[in-house]
Design goal:
The strands form three sheets. The protein has a five-stranded mixed β-sheet, covered by helices on one side. A three-stranded antiparallel β-sheet has the order 6-7-10. It folds into two domains: about 20-90, Ubiquitin-like (UB roll), CATH 3.10.20; about 95-235, Alpha-Beta Plaits (2-Layer Sandwich). The protein has helices at about 35-40, 95-110, 125-135, 170-175, 210-215, 240-250, and strands at about 20-25, 25-30, 65-70, 75, 90, 150, 155-160, 180-185, 190-195, 220-225. It is built from six helices and ten strands. The chain is α+β, with helices and mostly antiparallel strands and about 250 residues long. The longest helix is centred in the middle third of the chain and has 17 residues, at about 95-110.
C-alpha cells in the first residue's frame, strides 16, 4: 500500500516588527502597525478622544487625541499616526491641554448641548471630557443654530443639536452592519449626518433598524425613543466582538 504524502504545514503568518519609543518619558514597545493611541493605551496612558472606538476604523475626526512628537512643531492625531522607532511622544502638556479645551468649547458652542434636559446626561462622553479638562464655561460665543430633530423612525431619534460629527454612526453602519445608511452632508460647521440621500430616517430603505449607530453615539444625538432625562446609556462593548467575528468569517 502506497503511503500518502503528508500535508505541507502552513507557513506562519509574518509577525509585525516591534518598535521602541518613548511616551511621556516612558520607554514602551509596540508593533509597527499600531497607532500612538493604541501604544499609549496598551501601557496605561490615557489620551482623550471622541471619534475613536475599538472596532471601528480610526479617522482622526475629533482632533482631541493630538499629541506632540519631538522634532516637529506640529501636532499629530495619535489615532491615525503609526509608531516609529525612537519616536518621543508627549501626550499631556500645557499646549495640548489648551488645545483640547478649545476643541471642547467649540463643540459646545456650535450646537445646542443643554445637559440638564438631555436623555444622555450623566452618560455622555462630551460631558465627561468637559469635566476631565475643566471646561466650566465657554470663552467663545454660543451660535444657537436652529437645527431639526428627526423622530420619523419608529424606534430611534436623531437630534442634530447634540451631534459632534464624530462619524461613529457612519462607520459602524458601513463597516459592521454593512447597510451604509449614514453619511455626512455639507462641510465645516454646516456639516450634518444624513440617512440615504438626505431622507427622513423613518423612510430610509437601507436602514435595518439594528440600533448599532445609536449605541456607538457618544452624545445624545442618536437615542432610543421613550427615554427620559439621564435614562439613555450606551452599550459599545459589542463592537470589538462583532468586528472580530467579521474578520474570522473573511479568512
Amino acid at each position: 500500500m502506497s503511503s500518502r504524502p503528508s500535508a505541507k504545514p502552513a507557513a506562519p503568518a509574518p509577525s509585525s516588527k516591534v518598535k521602541t519609543l518613548t511616551i511621556d518619558d516612558r520607554l514602551v514597545s509596540a508593533r509597527e502597525d499600531e497607532s500612538i493611541l493604541d501604544a499609549a493605551r496598551d501601557n496605561g496612558i490615557q489620551i482623550p478622544t471622541l471619534c475613536n472606538l475599538d472596532g471601528l476604523t480610526p479617522v482622526g475626526a475629533c482632533r482631541l487625541c493630538m499629541v506632540e512628537v519631538k522634532g516637529s512643531s506640529r501636532l499629530f492625531a495619535s489615532c491615525v499616526t503609526m509608531v516609529g522607532e525612537g519616536m518621543e511622544v508627549v501626550t499631556d502638556s500645557e499646549r495640548l491641554q489648551k488645545y483640547r479645551k478649545t476643541i471642547v468649547e467649540l463643540l459646545f458652542s456650535e450646537r445646542n448641548h443643554v445637559c440638564a434636559v438631555c436623555v444622555s446626561n450623566g452618560h455622555c462622553e462630551l460631558q465627561n471630557l468637559a469635566q476631565l479638562l475643566g471646561v466650566t464655561h465657554l470663552t467663545v460665543p454660543y451660535l444657537n443654530p436652529k437645527l431639526p430633530v428627526d423622530a420619523s423612525h419608529e424606534r430611534f431619534v436623531n437630534d442634530h443639536n447634540r451631534c459632534v460629527l464624530c462619524q461613529r454612526c457612519v462607520r459602524v453602519c458601513g463597516e459592521v452592519e454593512g447597510a451604509h445608511t449614514w453619511d455626512i452632508n455639507g462641510r465645516g460647521i454646516g456639516a450634518r449626518v444624513i440617512t440615504d440621500l438626505n431622507q427622513p430616517w423613518g423612510s430610509s430603505e437601507t436602514c435595518t433598524g439594528c440600533g448599532k449607530c445609536v449605541q456607538v453615539c457618544p452624545t445624545g444625538a442618536l437615542t432610543e425613543k421613550g427615554k427620559s432625562v439621564r435614562e439613555m446609556s450606551k452599550r459599545t462593548r459589542f463592537l470589538p466582538y462583532l468586528t472580530m467575528m467579521r474578520e474570522d468569517r473573511s479568512e
